[in-house]
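#structure-requests
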Amino acid sequence: MTIGIWILGDQLWAEQAALKSGVDQAQTPVILIESLQHVQQRPYHKQKLALVWSAMRHFAEELKQDGWSVAYYELAQNFESPLREWVKEYQITEMRVMEPSDRPFADLVRSLDLPCQITLIPSNRFLWQTNDFDQWAKNRKRLVMEDFYREGRRRFDILMEGKQPIGGTWNFDKENRQPPKGKLNTPAPLWFKPDDITQTVIQQVEQLTFPTHGHAEPFRWGTTRKQALQVLDHFIQTRLPNFGPYQDAMVTDEETMWHALLSPYLNIGLLHPAELVAAAEKAFHEHDLSLNSVEGFIRQVCGWREYMYGLYRHVSDDYFAKNWFDHTHPMPEFFWDAEQTDMNCLHQTLKQVEQIGYAHHIQRLMILSNFCLISGLSPQAVENWFHSAFIDAYDWVMQTNVIGMGLFADGGMLASKPYAASANYINKMSDYCGKCVYNPKARVGEKACPFNFFYWNFLDRHREKLKSQGRMSFILANLDKMPAAELAEIRRQAQQWHEGRE
């Protein structure tokens, strides 16, 4: 018998489960494949393609240096043809693959018609195993992230003193919502100059003839585990100490603020979440860092990220088609070209996404998702755009984040209320509104911010459904106080906005 290992483009870690499945390294061939057919499923960001392919090529070289026999297929037409060729050449009787994180890709692997046994090895990319999450979720009426996060802290002994959280509080979120005031002096992120391998990949991405998104250059992301570890160390030393207070703030021309920029590396396997948690906790104890910053970061990693993956694996297939508000409007063209919108908050965020494939979590939730929600865009179209546009996007990342958190299309399975907001929130948490052609305080009229008339129109259209969400009662009471003539004009402007684009 000959065992072979297929390594996927988001499993680039020497400790990954398939490589550690008890095989004889000297006798085990390994294969990595770049499939053009696969990346044509949607118009992926050019920097996403450059990151994954360059990281794959670098990882293949590292495996070769470690003594593995590696077959690498650049820009292949599909997965199956190279796999068949490789299986035949090495007379492979069993092909092992670490279980894909994305459900559609797992289905693809199972559907392959290869002349060998295909074995899926349980993934070790996350802190929680799928079965553990299912056991936690069993018999719960609501799968609340905060409950899951606290269980994770206990289970993995993170920021704990015995059975109690350090500091006596689980969550310091209230301390981490400061608006941007004055000069912030944000730290410079750690970027890298593309090496020869990455330069070659960038050139190949630029020459692709099928639709892609964004710009390939300047490309500044790391593409190796060594560089990813440098980014982690740089974050711990220069960004984590002040990460907390302004993690929700948004500032013009500030691409990264104090954010970690680690998700692209985490999501292709160059880093493991346990490493991030351990590094942050060690820095807290050794350097007396503020607990609200450290806890806020750890909550994103061992709380939100693990929760989203567990939930994604737990829900039924019909979750991904959910549309609780019956929203059907298509994506506006400006989501693919930021120059086509004169809303400054959207222009700033979308332009940044085009340039580097990244925006931080509040830009994603309270600018992009918020607009999509209140303007009534199709949840599935929105998820497809997010999956296409972001460098850290995968099916497991975007389905629950967009369908559940961002758009409340699951009717409240994930979030306790819709994350809907008017321009008032954006004006408070950013400097975008001061440089915009629209008035953030106007709900109707020529200078009315679309976030305002869409927000109130959203509340009006879905009043009956929103009544069932207890936290919405106060906001709906404000809607009841609105003059009938103003509400009628809000409805008219919302409808007119869509009519001008469809």
